[in-house]
């Protein structure tokens, strides 16, 4: 009774003192809730960061695979660099050049940016080892602005390339790089500056190749005469095999005129689409026949032969030989 009276006199009971001793518990609970919220927020940020890093890694991996694929394509396109005729500068090819975000040499058809007008083709035919060397001058028109010249070649070893403009500026245009893309049988010349529409340009290409032992392109055949085997070299360009004999726009849609010159040993004779316009003889026993200019036609109509056949000739009533 005395204790209770003392407590009452002080204005506080024992229960009030006990309540004071536990009044801090609600504040402790709020602190725990705040800590938990921070942990959850940190965990969420960590998960989000992990997702972002994973996405970046996947993107970089895909980009790396694409670059690797392009590099392997470039190596495959230059797989013939071990050939004794291959130019070393043709081996260091990068296929990163793009035009309007594309690589036209990978397409099935040639780009429609250029249109050939005339070919001046000169060939030297060596029947003793079945090889030939040549030089072609192609006059073409630029239809749309471009830095790229893409034309067909197949099994040809390109030695030298020069590009000229019809402008008053003398000298050849600067070539950035050139390479052969075998999967599509095309040769690509990338210039430093663009060619302009409605202007005429010329490209000069020197090359050499084998006279193949097959029935396509410029090939060889043989026959027996009195027990002696004789050889001849003829062409079969249809439908798309002119590219095996000289660099050209080897699609039927690209029509142009052709002027052909064939140099060979005097023991052979040569024929082509047109009659011989002029013939010259060298002191070493070689003959060069210059044939007249053809009508405008597709590349697969062009033909020639180097042989030692004899022939008969007749003239129609209209004067056609």
Automatic annotation (TrEMBL):
Residues 75-102 are annotated as: Disordered. Residues 116-301 form the Aminopeptidase N-like N-terminal domain. The chain crosses the membrane at residues 39-62. It holds the Pfam family Peptidase_M1_N. GO terms for molecular function: metalloaminopeptidase activity; peptide binding; zinc ion binding. SUPFAM superfamilies: Leukotriene A4 hydrolase N-terminal domain. InterPro entries: Aminopeptidase_N-like_N (IPR045357), Aminopeptidase_N-like_N_sf (IPR042097), Peptidase_M1 (IPR001930), Peptidase_M1_aminopeptidases (IPR050344). GO terms for cellular component: cytoplasm; extracellular space; membrane. Keywords: Membrane, Transmembrane, Transmembrane helix. Residues 87-99 have a biased composition (Basic and acidic residues). The lineage of its organism: Eukaryota, Metazoa, Chordata, Craniata, Vertebrata. One of its GO terms (biological process) is peptide catabolic process. This is Aminopeptidase N-like N-terminal domain-containing protein.
């Amino acid at each position: 009774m005395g204790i209770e009276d003392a407590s009452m006199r002080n204005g506080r009971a024992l229960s009030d003192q006990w309540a004071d001793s536990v009044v801090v518990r609600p504040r402790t609970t709020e602190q725990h809730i705040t800590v938990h919220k921070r942990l959850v927020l940190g965990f969420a940020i960590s998960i989000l960061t992990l997702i972002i890093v994973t996405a970046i890694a996947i993107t970089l991996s895909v980009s790396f695979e694409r670059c690797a694929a392009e590099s392997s394509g470039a190596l495959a396109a230059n797989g013939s660099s071990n050939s004794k005729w291959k130019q070393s500068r043709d081996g260091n090819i990068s296929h990163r050049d793009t035009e309007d975000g594309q690589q036209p040499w990978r397409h099935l058809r040639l780009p429609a940016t250029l249109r050939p007008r005339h070919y001046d083709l000169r060939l030297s035919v060596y029947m003793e080892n079945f090889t030939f060397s040549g030089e072609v001058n192609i006059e073409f028109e630029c239809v749309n602005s471009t830095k790229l010249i893409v034309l067909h070649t197949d099994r040809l070893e390109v030695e030298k390339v020069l590009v000229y403009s019809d402008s008053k500026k003398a000298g050849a245009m600067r070539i950035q790089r050139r390479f052969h893309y075998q999967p599509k049988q095309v040769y690509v010349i990338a210039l430093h500056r663009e060619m302009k529409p409605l202007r005429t340009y010329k490209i000069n290409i020197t090359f050499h190749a084998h006279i193949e032992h097959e029935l396509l392109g410029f090939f060889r055949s043989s026959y027996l005469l009195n027990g002696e085997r004789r050889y001849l070299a003829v062409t079969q360009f249809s439908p798309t095999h002119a590219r095996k004999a000289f660099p050209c726009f080897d699609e039927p849609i690209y029509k142009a005129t052709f002027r052909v010159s064939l140099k060979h040993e005097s023991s052979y004779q040569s024929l082509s689409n047109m009659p011989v316009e002029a013939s010259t003889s060298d002191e070493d026993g070689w003959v060069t026949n210059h044939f007249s200019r053809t009508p405008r036609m597709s590349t697969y109509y062009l033909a020639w032969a180097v042989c030692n056949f004899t022939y008969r000739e007749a003239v129609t009533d209209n004067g056609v030989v």
